[in-house]
Write a structure and sequence with these properties.
- This protein is of the alpha+beta class and 345 residues long.
- Helix content is 25%, strand content 39%.
- The chain has 6 helices and 17 strands.
- It has helices spanning 81-96, 119-129, 189-208, 243-250, 261-271, 322-341; strands at residues 3-9, 15-26, 37-41, 51-63, 74-76, 102-113, 134-140, 144-150, 153-158, 161-172, 212-223, 226-236, 258-259, 282-286, 291-296, 300-304, 307-316.
- α2 (119-129) crosses α6.
- The radius of gyration is 19 Å and the shape is globular.
Length: 345
């Protein structure tokens, strides 16, 4: 075991929670049953990339404070568009050939600053900028330091009452649209179909567990300057049902992977240019004081002193184009870029 910490703020909360403790490594979500703490899970669990649980030795609730600014020189690192174009052609060809009905392609971008920025300052900036999102900062020896500002619930529950969502489809708000919640957005058939695939998959997963669930949606929800289509699933599970088993079934959802899920997952792991590591995994408090708030690790970055490795992805369908998908990832990368850029005075 090794010492680690996590800070997290739930959507719209006016405080954040600090969890400190020793880490425990897991090889499967199934091993979560009976544990409590803060969970950091990768997209692909491996020996060198385990699921990490910070076992709570110290838990504190702290009020949010304004993030301080400091003068730094910030610039975007080089992004090789050619790698993305190659990946897109490869991934999209699998859709056209009928191998997958949907597959998610992700990429990485590197940003730099003249001096290191304290992770806690980036966390507080993210809390200021994105009140609707789940914000988390984690530092473990196994994962390194990651910051996420994500809108996507993987699994949330108090007692026997549980919730998950199907979140897919992305559009960028511009001009007058930024004054609202996306109510004037007109969704394309590609986005509607992509979200329906995810919602259908989640419903089928819940049926496997004989869950008594209720689905609402889809509806348009805003996350920073983007909007998504979201369906909510609320359900109950019997006391003898395994939450670890449910997580093992849900993760990764088609929102970050594809369908058929197993085949899409293997294709991504073998063919994506940049390994995802803890991007598109999940993190959050698990059975901590009777509450679970696990979120998919989207809009995230790996912090390495003055280097920031940002990750973003998008779901490919038959009518996807490389330019449109690239622009979608650029819009998603802006979430973390804004946190870095606001360090300038």
């Amino acid at each position: 075991m090794s010492s680690a910490y996590a800070l997290y703020r739930l959507p719209h909360a006016n405080h954040y929670v600090m969890v400190k403790g020793q880490t425990q490594e897991l090889t499967s979500c199934l091993e979560l049953d009976g544990l409590s703490g803060f969970v950091v899970a990768p997209f692909e669990t491996r020996k060198d990339q385990p699921i990490v649980v910070i076992r709570p030795e110290q838990v504190e609730q702290r009020p949010l404070q304004p993030a301080t600014s400091e003068s730094v020189a910030y610039h975007e690192g080089e992004t090789d568009r050619s790698y993305y174009a190659i990946d897109f052609a490869n991934f999209h060809a699998q859709i056209i050939s009928g191998q997958f009905s949907k597959i998610v392609l992700a990429r990485q971008a590197e940003e730099m600053s003249s001096v290191p920025i304290e992770p806690i300052k980036l966390f507080l900036r993210a809390c200021e900028c994105y009140p609707r999102m789940f914000i988390a900062l984690v530092d473990t020896p196994q994962s390194g330091i990651w910051l996420t500002a994500t809108p996507e619930i993987l699994l949330e529950g108090i007692g026997g009452n549980w919730r998950t969502i199907a979140l897919a489809g992305t559009m960028k708000l511009e001009g007058e649209q930024l004054n609202g919640e996306g109510e004037t957005v007109t969704w394309s058939m590609k986005n509607i179909q992509e979200q329906r695939i995810v919602a259908t998959y989640i419903a089928e997963c819940l049926e496997l567990f004989h869950a008594d669930f209720h689905e609402e949606g889809p509806r348009t929800v805003r996350a920073a300057n983007l909007v998504h289509l979201r369906s909510d699933f609320t359900f109950t599970l019997s006391a003898d049902e395994s939450i670890g088993n449910l997580l093992q079934t849900l993760h990764p959802t088609p929102a970050v992977c594809g369908l058929p899920k197993r085949e899409a997952f293997q294709f991504i792991v073998q063919n994506e240019h940049t390994p995802r590591r803890y991007y598109s995994g999940f993190m959050g408090p698990f059975a901590l004081y009777g509450e679970t708030h696990l979120y998919v690790s989207l809009r995230c970055m790996n912090i390495k002193e003055n280097r920031f490795l940002l990750y973003a992805g998008g779901g490919l369908m038959k009518d996807s184009t490389e330019w449109q998908e690239w622009q979608e990832t650029e819009a998603k990368l802006e979430t973390m870029r804004k946190c870095i850029a606001t360090s300038k005075t």
